[in-house]
């Protein structure tokens, strides 16, 4: 059985209130994953996720909420890797350097067009501190809200659980697992660009996402 990587089991400064919030999250996740994972695995995932996010968090008050979301993703990935939960939905992971622009826009389009028919995740080799506000702005123009997303690192279980890994500029830092389908989308990094500059990148990302969904035979919203 796969376990959370030991290198992630490091300590991070945490307040009493945050510890209490994580305990509440652990209760929710324990109920959600009942019959799949025990409390020890849940707690390990939460604290590893907290450690991964705490170093770059700009709004500490949101850390417990973001930690729970990240831990839920990792646990779902772990369940798929271990064959404990199999729903047949294709899973696509979008990776870029900072997980703040390109990969977040790709994930936004993927989730918008695929709905419940596929699973999308994103991550970065060197996660930034926040989502690119211009990426948020130009996606909102298309009716897609990515403001609630957050930069996060990729983890081994998430990469292993993905059926397709789309990389965007992370080069040798991107994780490689033999036998997995990889695609490199050569797209410029829109960090620091104006909305006028980012829109063509956004539109090209949507085109590629729709093409990928068609290849995977995933029904899309009209």
Quick structural summary:
By secondary structure, the protein is of the alpha/beta class.
Would you mind describing this structure in some detail?
The protein is α/β, with parallel strands linked by helices. The protein is 45% helix and 9% strand. The chain has helices spanning 16-32, 39-54, 63-81, 102-114, 133-140, 156-161, 195-215; strands at 91-96, 119-124, 164-168, 181-184. A 4-stranded parallel beta sheet has the order 2-1-3-4. Strand 1 (91-96), helix 4 and strand 2 form a beta-alpha-beta unit. It is globular.
Mean pLDDT: 90
Low-confidence stretches: 1-11
Radius of gyration: 17 Å
Order of helices and strands: HHHEHEHHEEH
Strand order of the largest sheet: 2-1-3-4
Taking the alpha carbons of the first and last residues, their distance comes to 40 Å
Helix-strand category: alpha/beta
- Overall geometry comes to globular
What count of structural domains? 2
User: How many β-strands, per DSSP?
Assistant: 4
User: What's the story with the biggest beta sheet?
Assistant: 4 strands, parallel
Layout: helices, strands, pairs:
Layout: H1 16-32, H2 39-54, H3 63-81, E1 91-96, H4 102-114, E2 119-124, H5 133-140, H6 156-161, E3 164-168, E4 181-184, H7 195-215
Parallel strand pairs: 1-2, 1-3, 3-4
Helix pairs in contact: 1-2, 1-3, 2-3, 4-7, 5-7
Features:
single chain; 222 residues; alpha/beta; Helicase, Ruva Protein, domain 3; 2 domains; 4-stranded parallel sheet; disordered N terminus; Arsenate reductase ArsC; Ptyr_pPase_sf; arsenical resistance
